[in-house]
Each structure stands twice: as C-alpha cells, then as structure tokens.
Amino acid sequence: MPDLSVYSAGGPQAGPTSWQEVLLHGSDVRRVRFSGTLPAELSFQGNFIECSFDDVTWSGSNLQRCDWKDCHLKSVTFIDCDLGHAAILTNAFTSCRFIRCRFPDTSISDCTFLNCEFEECDLTHIIIKNSRFEAVRFSRCGTSNRIVESSILHDTTWEGMDIEADLLIGNFGLSRDQLSNCRLFRRLPQGARDVHDWSQVDEVFAGRELGLIERFRLSYFNTGSIDGDPDLLDRALDPRQWTGDAPIPASFASLLMSFSQFLLIQYAEGKCRFYPLLRFYGGNFDLLEWLAKQPELLPLYQASAGVHYTLNNEVSHFMAVLQRVFAAHGTSLVTHVGANGPLDTEHFDAFFKEIGLSGVRAISVRPRNSPVDLGVAAADSHTLLAFLALLLACRTKFDLRKQADSEGLDQEGAKGQSLIVFQTGQSLTKPGEFEISVNTLLPRSLQLELRLTMSMGMFKKAGRVLVELIGSEKKGGQAVQDGPQ
Q1: What Cα–Cα distance (Å) separates residue 184 from each residue in 174, 187, 273?
Q2: 5-208 in CATH: which number?
Q3: Averaged pLDDT, 422-448
Q4: CATH 2.160.20: which residues of the chain?
C-alpha cells in the first residue's frame, strides 16, 4: 500500500496532538498505517479508507457507524468493541481476533478472513455476503439469522452456537464435522425459533423448494464430499442449470466465481479428483459460447471468461501431463494400469463396457502385490489418448504432480503448454467496441468424450478400479501394435 502516513500508538508520534488529528477529530481517515495499542474506550465517528492496521489492539471502543473500505488488518484484536450499523467492504483480515464485540445491523461484503477468531461476539442481525473465511473459528457467539451467505467457508470451526438452517445451504464448504456443541434452529415469524436435532437436517428443508446449488451445499454438509451425491454433482457442474439459484445476472456471476473457487480449493486440498474440474470447465465453456451471442449480458460474459482464465493453470497442467504420458507410449497402443479386481480379463472388459469406454479391451491381468497389473489395448491412438485422459482425471492434484515429476515435467513446463488463449482489447470485427476473447485449444472430441459419456457415478467407480498408471508396452507383437481385433 503506497504513500501511507504512519501512526504508532507506542512510538514517538504518539500523543494528544496526533490522536486529535488522526482519530479524535472524527473525520475520514485515508491511507494511514496504524500499529500498537490504541487508547481504551476510544470513540471514533469517521471512516477508514485504504488504511493498514498491523498489530493493533482496540479495547472498549465505540466504532458505531464507522465504515471500513479497502483496508488490510493484520494481527488486530478488538475487545469489547461496538462495530454496529457499519459497512465493512473489500477488506482483508489476517490473524485478527474479535472478543465480545457487537455487530448489530452491520453489513460485511467482499472481505477475506484468514486465521481469525470470533469469540463470544453478538452476531445478531449481522449480514455477511460474498466473502471468504479460511481457518476461522466462531465460538459461543450469539446469532439470530444465517450470519453468512453467498460465501466460502473453508476449514472453519463453530463451537457452542445456535446455527440457523439457511447457513448450511447458503454457503460453500460447511460440513458437519466443523460443528461442535451447536444447536440447529429455523426462524419463525416474530422472532420465534424452531429448534431441531441434527438428525433432522433434511426434514428442516423438506417443505421448501431448494435450488440445485442449495441441494448440492446440503449434500456437502451431510457427507463432507463434493461427490456425496454423484447425480447431484453431475447437474451442479453444468452452470446452465443454475437458474433456480441465481435469477439475475449479478447473482449468477457471483455464484459462478464462488463455485469455481470452491472446486479449486477442494482440488488443492486433495479432496476431489481432476474430473469434476474438467466437467465444470466444459460446462462453463458452453455457457461462455452462448453468452458470446448475448451482448446484453456482457458482465456475465466477463465473469464466465474470468472463471475460464482462473481454471487455465490446472487444465493446462493436466493436459501437459497427459501429452507427456501419451508421447511416452510412442507407437504402442498398449498401456499397463494398476487396477483393483480379479485376475480375469472378462471382468475388466465388462467394466469398460459399463462405464461407456469403447475401443479398449483387457489383454492381460497379472498378479501384483496390490493392485493387479492390468494390460489394456486401444483400437487407435485417439482411443488410447481418451483412456489415458480418463485415468489421469481419476487422480488428485498431488497424484498429478507426482506423475509430472516422473515424466520430467516441471512447473515451467506445464505453463509452457498454451491451451487457452485469453485476449482483451478493441474488437477487430467491430471497430470502437471492447471485447474479451477466450479460445480453448483443448481437443473438442476428447472434451466431449470425457464429460458427456460418463456420469459422476461411473467416474467414481472408474477411480476405484483404475488406481495408477504403470507404463506403456513398447513391444508385444502384432496384437499390441494393431490393438483389439
């Protein structure tokens, strides 16, 4: 943050004059850096804009109607402070603590909270939207509504609190194992509460018509996995089916971006394999193609293009690994896979048929410590490429990194594979107009085969059977070179 004035409560600048000038005057404070312990029971009636707070302690302060915008707060502690009737917008909170603080009628939007704590705070009538919470702990806080909505809750913990049911379906990432000693309630007219046991979670929503993404979030809460309900995930990965959750373009754009971030978090944590990302990538690409023909939806088109660009790194790395693995086979159409199953080629042929993978057949099954060594022959090079893509899509990010290392593909090598062309600027076909152009070099036939012919249920089964890539078969006679007859 450039050009910041510096104020240190414990430094040489401290004193009545500086306090009157910086805080007690009551005007807006812009681009000031604070550190140290501020005077207790301070009352401030201005706003903070583009300020930095580093290792600051507020105690008993009255900060009602004090708005915070574009500020960075690191290692800041608020004790017995009133932060009510305020707008807190586009701020970053890192390692901050809120102890016995009040937030009546406060609106928090587009903020990030990393490694923060809310302890014994009054969160009644607070509204938090479009924000990200990572490694955040809520303990013994008072609530009256869902608290947070349209946000990402990653690795959060909730202790000794009343949890409004809509919190479960209004955010990405909340799961049962994050809650301890909490009560579930549903709001009734005139402030009354209907308290439920956690075994009744599904019954609470039985009388409501939930949107697709709301049902997906509820499934994640119950199972702790994005594919706890494979059929539901199938539909959720296609943004064109989200109209019930986001009826206007602005909410749709926000949902599109938060869902992509949630998937990337799950993938980075090793909690999902690559295939759902590829499916979502394809679904968003279809949406992008449709939006390109809807000039009145330019903001939504820009959001979809941004999501495509965000996914670019993972997709390009996957394709680079796939390309190296495929190239290592040379002219051979045979590959060997570690698989779970009996020593019976017919069993695996039936499996290939069940998942809809045509053009491949099992030619050998040999005992191996665990799993078995399965030899697979493809009808042609395109079929082999599709099979290898499926096999790698069953891997987690960690597995793909290991595969990349074994193929001698480093991070720079992955970036060198240009699979998505992203351009912005003046239109070449419509002079005077600005446009965003996103073209994908991902083979369309491969993309179609992977995301349209296999459901998430069949993919989960493929992931359980096809465990690891062992290597290619360079020699083996005419049957190997020609593939299945």
Answers
A1: 14, 10, 32
A2: 2.160.20
A3: 48
A4: 5-208
